[in-house]
Amino acid sequence: MTAIETQQHEPATTKLWLRSYEDPGFIYRHVSTRSPRDCTPEEIPVIDLTHMFGDVAGRQKLAAEILHAAETSGFFYIKSHGVPEATITGSQEEAKKFFYLPEEVKLGVKADPAVSFYGYQGPGTRRVDPGTAPDTRESFNFHYQPKFDPVHQGRLADVPKDVTQHIPNDDYIWNDVGLPKFQSELVAYWQSCLSLARQLVRILAVGLDLPEDYFDRVTTYPGSDLTLNFYPGYGDKPVEERGEVELNAHTDMQILTLLWQSEGRGLQILNTENEWIFAPPIPGTFVVNIGDFLMRLTNDRLKSTIHRVKQNGKFDRYSTAFFFGFNFNEKCGVVPTCVTESMPAKYQPVTCGELIAKRLAAVQQSES
Ligand SMILES: O=C(O)CCC(=O)C(=O)O
Ligand SMILES: [Fe+2]
Predict the structure, then answer these.
(1) pLDDT value, residue 5
(2) Which residues surround ligand 2, an ion (CB under 5 A)?
(3) Domain segments of the chain: what residues?
(4) Looking at the whole model, is its pTM more than 0.80?
(5) For the segment 304-320, what is each residue's pLDDT rounded down to a tens digit?
(6) Are 266 and 310 in contact (CB under 8 A)?
(7) CATH match for 36-367 among 3.40.50.300, 3.40.50.150, 1.10.3430.10, 2.60.120.330
(8) What is the residue with the minimal CA distance to atom 5 of ligand 1?
(9) Is 261 close to ligand 1, i.e. is its CB under 6 Å away?
């Protein structure tokens, strides 16, 4: 093959801008412009959680499977996860009803940036990738509250002040929008995800050769945000009027994310060859991905992988992301099993809250 032919066949690349934690607030990667293909089961495996509560041998085998996926693509599907189908359906029905409400009703529970970024966010109000146009998705999100957490029921007076001070006072996001079951269905779903995430973190500890309860101390009041996403379908709009990317390229910031997605491709993951691959919805599963904070705690052993969403079709797409982090008031350093003489800790201890604040500050600086 001649040099010229090689050039012609080389896939074109484009510069992809990403938020970072350090000055100047963003970095870039050269990524392929080739159309995405579906992921293979080796790239994003489906992991059966049946043995999550089983005997030690079963838990260790499961932990090894999860660790392998977390160290390679940073993404995996989970099945037999224990979240009841009725809980998923209940929350999704409310999500759909909410997004179909008239805009002025949704604006009644919109995020007030002076207080927090929780509540409703309309299309075009956020931009996660500084190199492109604002995201066109709509979303509604809420955060951890001890009063929603079954572990603290009846003992709310015991919640320490250094926990409550990190919790925004934004109950207006639950103002009446005329959907009597909106809050209860969403909180029930959030509670199931919370319990699943706490258990997954125990399995991750096993996989990292740590005591199973190693992280329990930092999951008592964990950062646990639930985001409902809505990506309107194109319907019969001509191609030239369609948006480019609905949720721009980013990594998730905390420990792990549990993602439910409706039918239709949308979620794309950047593989190690810098090519986008689809993680199509698989009925009965959630997609799990590792966040930046866990990557940091494992000295970059587990991967927080770049992903984005493109609305790929005629029909509306929905997704629900549960972002699980550690207690916002606890500093966490690199875990001892991810440090060796030749690979010393690359990062200083930090709290999940500090890390997020750092990225937001870098973002603000890059936008001002
Ligand atoms: O909608 C999706 O499939 C992914 C959403 C996502 O990545 C996020 O909300 O961080
Ligand atoms: Fe994400």
Answers:
(1) 38
(2) 252
(3) 36-367
(4) yes
(5) 999 999 876 788 899 99
(6) yes
(7) 2.60.120.330
(8) 321
(9) yes
